[in-house]
Amino acid sequence: MKNMADKRKLTISIITIVLVLIIVLISAVVCNGVGGKKEEESCESSNTFEAEEDETATKNETSVEDGTTIKNETTVKNESTIDDETTVDDITTTTSEITTKEETTKKEEPTTEQETTSKKDEEKEDEVVTSTFSHPGLLHSALSFEYMTYAVNNSITPNIDTWNVLLSTGFSNASWNPRPLETVIRGGNGDNVAQLYIDVARAYQCALIWKVSGSEAHGAAACRILNAWSGTLKTVTGNADRYLASGLFGYQLANASEIMRDHPDFKLEQMQNMLYTVFYKPLNERFLTGNEYGYPHNDAYFQNYWANWDLCNIASAMAIGIFCDNEEAYNVGLQYFINGIGNGSIYNAMPYVHEDGTVQWQESGRDQGHTNLGVGLMACILEMAWNQGDDLYSWGDNRFLKAAEYVAKYNNGEDVLFSEYEWGSGRNGDVKHHTVVSEAGRGEVRPIWSMIYNHYVNRMGLEAPNIKARLEAFGNAEYGAGGHATTFDQPGWGTLTYAGNVGNTEATVPKRNIESGVYRIVSYHTGKSLKLCDDNVVRQCVKGSDDKDLWEFIDLGDGEFNIKNVETGLMLSVAGDSHSNAANIIGWEANGKASQRFAILTADENNYRIIASNSGKALDIPWGSDDETLNLQQYRYTCLNFQKWYLEKVD
Questions:
Q1: SS3 content of the chain, % helix, strand, coil (to 5)
Q2: Which residues are paired to 88 by β-bridges?
Q3: What is the C-alpha to C-alpha distance for residues 222 and 480, in angstroms, rounded to an integer?
Q4: Which domains are seen in the chain, by residue range?
Q5: What digits encode the pLDDT tens for the residues 545-585?
Q6: How far apart are the first and last CA of the chain?
Q7: Which of 129, 284, 492, 523 has the fewest CB atoms within 10 Å, i.e. the most exposed one?
Q8: For residue 353, which of 560, 511, 556 has the smallest C-alpha distance?
Q9: Dihedral angle at the C-alpha atoms of 187, 190, 196, 197, nearest 10 degrees?
Q10: What is the separation of C-alpha 303 from the centre of its chain, rounded to a whole number of angstroms?
C-alpha cells in the first residue's frame, strides 16, 4: 500500500510540475506577442547580374477582367551606359462604370492647424504605437486628405473634375481581383512586371476613393489587392531594370499602403515585412549604398546610371522607411539625396545654375521623357520629406524650383540655356558628354506638376510661371495610370490631391554637416591648407603659415554656405561663374551669386567634399600636386583624395 501511495504522490508531483511549465510557456508566448519585436526575415536573391546586360526584347500580353489589354514590350539597350528604355503599346481600357452613392454635404473649410486628428482616429481604440514618423505621412498628410474631402464635397474645381474622372476609370474598379506573383521580373526573359504595376495603380486609386469618400467597397478592394501582394511576392528580379521596378513600384506600393494603414482589413505587418525584405534591403539599399547583397549601382561606376535610377530608389527607401517606422531606411534615402555621389543626388541631378536663374537637369541632353520622369520622382522625394518635417524643397536657394522651371520652360516650347554636361559611364567611368539639350520627347505630358506648383506657389507664395503654363497647356488636369507604361511611373491625380491643397505648412532644412564658424580648409591628400593669395587666387600653403588661410563659414540656412576669407573679407568664388572643369577658385567681393555658394558634403568618415553651387563641381587640387604655385580649381567629383578636405575649427 505504501508503494502505491508513493507512486500516487510521485504522479501528482509530475503532473503539477508539467502544469506549471505549461503556464510559464503560455505566459511567455503572450508577453512576446504583446511587447516582443518580430525578427525581420531576409530575402536573398539567387541571381547575380552584371552591370552591362545583353540587348533583350520580351513581349507579354496580359488580359484583365475589366477589358484592359496590355501588351508589354521591354527593350533593354546596354552598351557602356545602361539604359532604361521601356515601351508599352496597344493599351486599351474599357472604362467600368462605378456607381457610388455618396451624400455630398457641405463642410466647413478644414483647419489649418499643423496636427489634425480624424474621427476615425478618435473612435479607434487600438493600442497606441509610438512612432517618430507622422502618419499618414508620405505623399499625403492628414491635413491634405481633409482638404481633398472638403474640395470634393464642395465641388471645387479642378479637384471635383479630377475626382469624377477618377471614379469613372477602369483602374478604380472596386470588384477587381488581384493577380499577385511570387516572382516579378522586369527586363529580360519572362518580363511580367505589368502585372505588378497594374495592381499597384488599382490599389492606390481605390485607396484614394476610400480615404476621401469612405466608400467601403473601394476600401475592401484596396486591402484585397495589397494583402494579396504582400502575402505572395518573394522576389523582384530581371536584368538591370529590376532596380527600376524596385524603385518605381516600391515607393508607390508604400504610398498606397500608407493610405490604408488604419483600415481594419489591411495586414500592416505583412506589408511592412514584404516591402523591407523584397524591395528595400536587396534592391533599394543595395543600389544606392551597397550592403550584404552586393556593391552599389549594380557593380557599375557610380555615375553610370541616369538620375531617375537613383531617384526612384531614394523615393522607395524613404517611403518604406516612413511606412515601416524604420528610421535607418528613411535616412539612407534622405542622406543619399543630399550626400550621395550618384546622379540622383541634389548637385548631380541638378548640376548647373544658369545666369537667368534656371537650373539644368542631368538628363536634359538625353531626352525629355526621362527628364520629366526625374523631375516627378524628385518632387515625390521632397513632398514625402516635407510631410515628415524635413524641408528639401528650399535646399540651395530653391534649387529644385529652378530646375523644374527649366524643364517646364523647354517643354512649353521655349528655348533654354545649356552647358556641356560630362559624366562617367560603364564599369570604369568612361567619359561621355552632352553638348545640346535634346528635343526627343519634347512636350511630353506627365502628371507631375501640380505637386510642385502647390508647394512653391500655394504654400510658399513664390512664383512658378513656367510650371503654371505647363499645367495650363493640358487644361489643369492631371490623371493617373493607363494608356502607356510611363503613366504607371507616378501615382498621378495631382489636380485632385494637390490643387489648392496647402497641407502641412512647416518643415526645417536638415542639419548641415558643419556649423558656422572659422576654419582652416586642409587637404586630406597633401595636408596643406587653402589660402587666398595676393592676386586673389586660392592656392595651398603649409598649414598655419599664412594669416590668409582662415575662412569664415556662414550658414545660409538652406544647406549651403558662403565662405569668407577672414583676412581680406573676400568671398570664395568660382571665377567667371563657370560651369567648366579646371575653372579657377578665387576671392571676390560679395555679390550674392550661386558661384559664391558652397555645399559641404560628406566624402568619407572624417572628410568632406566642397561643392560649388553654380556648377555642382568639387574643389580640386590639380593632379593632386603639393605644388604651392598651382591654382585651386573645380572639377567633376571623381572620389579622388585630392578632392577631399577636413575642416579644422579655429577658436
A1: 40, 15, 45
A2: 72
A3: 16
A4: 56-100+136-168+193-497 (1.50.10.100), 517-649 (2.80.10.50)
A5: 998 999 999 999 999 999 999 999 999 999 999 999 999 99
A6: 94
A7: 129
A8: 560
A9: 40
A10: 18
